[in-house]
Design a protein that fits this description.
Elements (H helix, E strand, L loop, with lengths): L2 H9 L16 E2 L8 E2 L1 H6 L15 H9 L23 H12 L7 E8 L5 E8 L5 H12 L2 H13 L11 E4 L2 H9 L3 E5 L5 E4 L29 H11 L5 E8 L5 E8 L5 H12 L9 H7 L12 E3 L2 H10 L2 E5 L5 E4 L18 H29 L7 H10 L7 H21 L5 H18 L5 H14 L5 H21 L1 H17 L1 E2 L2 E2 L2 H4 L2 H8 L42
């Protein structure tokens, strides 16, 4: 074996397995620092390691040490502790159930876990207890709808018979009740604000829905304000948000499926689609991604958006984030899939396309010419935010022939006495305005707009008076800042603000050629992206009548088709003639006699 073969063998060495893969080969204990468990000699021989003894006495290589260090499981990981213990189930013995609950919920330190034991007035009395979290249940409902009926002998007898038969859905007509035999499920439901009722002698627990924590009322949207249209936004309670959506989409075909994500948060996620309209493959893909999440903390829609995002798709938003129920409902009716997360006032709509970058919630409520014009304004604002500073630097630094002579003389006269180079001045000005914008967001809302306006005026005027910036440079920075506010999607606006600096560097280094090449790269990158199987640029390349509806808003009675790129089961929104009154004979004014 030559030296090259020895090097390849050294790189191909695999570390010993921390556990036995072959049950026929007895594991050999490994001693020493960092070695835990055992490994199988047969597995090591199959890995192709040569020149080592079967007991694994040879020292691991450098790559083995590095690989074992990075693949070492955490102290609290299940893999480091061996197989996970079996989930406890609800036992017939009440004392055992309460002991398990006290152990899981740490009642010795958690003062808000309430456990109340009492006797059901049946015969000599049946021991029972209920468990709930103080502050998460409606105490009036607990006293009036649960505790008071339980102290009634007739109701207690019916409860005992119903629990024995497993039929308790109608025992508490004022609340939803379910039976569970898994202690993990019972504890999870308790942590969600429900009440768990344990009865001695019964191997199941009765869970009663009596949620009653304090919640924020429905308010106006903050990030998507409109002049025409509803003025209500989602709240942080999932049931309230589902109710708001049901009020708009009053169809039995609206499907709401609940999933649970987060090992620590156990957050409920609702997936909405309309049967016989939404593509089933799209729905299955959304459910597959969400159900496959193994993260510990998922408590907001933005976090879930990142978890269902494709890794190479991080530069562009993956879903439409909206706080408006009307926009959410309109997207679901079009064939999109809607996602809601408990504790979040924002909903997700997937997939996303380039048309959503310029769309606003108010577009549907305006007459046809206005939305198209506003979309062009937003697209122009995005393009100006992206390339205007870099284009100005390229024209002033490299391409003087692009500027009219009169304007060039004015720019040169304004820059007279300014020692700062144009690229550095533009970069510093844009960075300073971003400082002011971020400061205006973080300070209290009554003071924020004042700091933004006054700060920009004072700093800009002081920079011009101190001959640090030319007046034309201040104008370019101000136009770029105003144009950035025309972008309705906050994720896209942040992305454009970041890439603005890349175009500044390209314009100051390579001129117009650098900006053109960078625009080409961005365009090719956008054309290569897909959101849940749908190309980002689908509205531009799909064609057909549905593309005209997405790119340029038409009259409502002319929008007959849903977007073709979604492949919906129901492609038509409405029949060819939706205004049937036009088919009748029009009324004519009466003639004078």
């Amino acid at each position: 074996m030559g030296w090259w073969g020895k090097i390849l063998d050294w790189f191909n060495q695999e570390p010993a397995m921390p556990f036995s893969l072959d049950p026929e080969v007895p594991p050999i204990k490994v001693k020493g620092k960092g070695a835990t468990g055992s490994y199988s000699p047969g597995a090591q021989e199959e890995a192709g390691t040569t020149g080592e003894s079967e007991q694994g006495s040879s020292k691991p290589g450098i790559l083995q040490k590095v690989g074992s260090f990075f693949s070492r499981k955490g102290k609290g990981d299940e893999g480091a502790r061996g197989p996970a213990p079996e989930e406890p189930s609800v036992a017939p013995d009440l004392d055992k159930n309460l002991l398990t609950v006290r152990r899981i919920l740490h009642t010795d330190r958690n003062s808000d876990v309430i456990i109340r034991e009492f006797l059901l007035p049946v015969g000599k009395g049946i021991r029972a207890a209920f468990v709930f979290i103080d502050g998460m249940v409606n105490l009036r409902a607990v006293n009036a709808d649960i505790l008071r009926p339980l102290l009634d002998p007739d109701f207690a007898a019916r409860l005992a018979r119903g629990l024995a038969a497993g039929n308790v859905e109608k025992l508490f007509p004022a609340a939803a009740t379910t039976l569970h035999d898994s202690m993990r499920k019972v504890v999870t439901e308790t942590l969600m604000g429900n009440l768990a009722l344990f009865v001695d002698g019964l191997g199941k627990a009765l869970v009663v829905d009596v949620k009653g924590w304090e919640k924020r009322p429905i308010s106006e949207p903050v990030t998507e304000r409109v002049v025409i249209g509803p003025h209500e936004a989602f709240a942080e309670t999932l049931k309230v948000n589902i109710t708001m959506l049901r009020r708009i989409l009053r169809t039995p075909d609206l499907i709401c499926e609940l999933l649970e994500v987060g090992k620590v948060t156990h957050t409920q996620v609702a997936i909405f689609h309309i049967e016989h309209i939404t593509n089933p493959r799209l729905v299955n893909e959304v459910k597959r991604r969400i159900s496959s999440i193994k993260a510990s903390y998922v408590a907001e829609s933005a976090i879930l958006d990142q978890l269902i995002d494709v890794p190479r798709f991080w530069m562009v938003p993956h879903a439409v984030l909206t706080e408006r129920p009307d926009r959410f409902a309109g997207a679901v009716a079009e064939g999109y899939v809607g996602i809601m997360v408990d504790h979040s006032p924002f909903g997700l709509v997937v997939p996303i396309t380039i048309a959503d970058f310029f769309s606003s919630a108010e577009d549907i409520y305006l007459r046809p010419p206005a939305p198209t014009f506003l979309k062009l304004i937003r697209a122009s604002g995005m393009l100006a935010t992206l390339i205007l500073p870099g284009l100005y630097i390229a024209a002033v630094t490299f391409h003087h022939e692009m500027i009219p002579s009169v304007l060039l003389q004015a720019i040169a006269a304004s820059k007279e006495g300014v020692p700062t180079p144009t690229p550095l001045a533009v970069f510093a000005g844009e960075l300073g305005f971003d400082f002011i914008r971020e400061a205006g967001v973080r300070v209290p809302s009554p003071v924020g707009p004042t700091i933004g306006i006054v700060g920009a005026l004072l700093i800009g005027d002081a920079a011009v008076r101190a001959s640090l910036l030319a007046p034309v440079t201040v104008i370019i920075i101000a136009v770029t800042a105003v144009a950035s506010f025309t972008i309705p999607n906050q994720d896209v606006a942040t992305l454009v603000r970041i890439f603005k600096y890349v175009f500044i560097v390209a314009g100051s280094t390579f001129g117009i050629l650098g900006i053109g090449l960078l625009l080409y790269v961005v365009g090719v990158y956008l054309c290569s992206l897909r959101s849940f199987g749908v190309p980002i640029v689908a509205p531009v390349i799909a064609g057909g009548p549905s593309a005209r509806d997405v790119v340029a808003r038409r009259a409502v009675w002319k929008m007959e088709h849903r977007p073709r790129f979604l492949r919906p089961e129901g492609i038509r929104r409405q029949p060819p003639v939706s205004r049937t009154w036009t088919l009748a004979r029009p009324l004519r004014p009466c003639k004078r006699k």
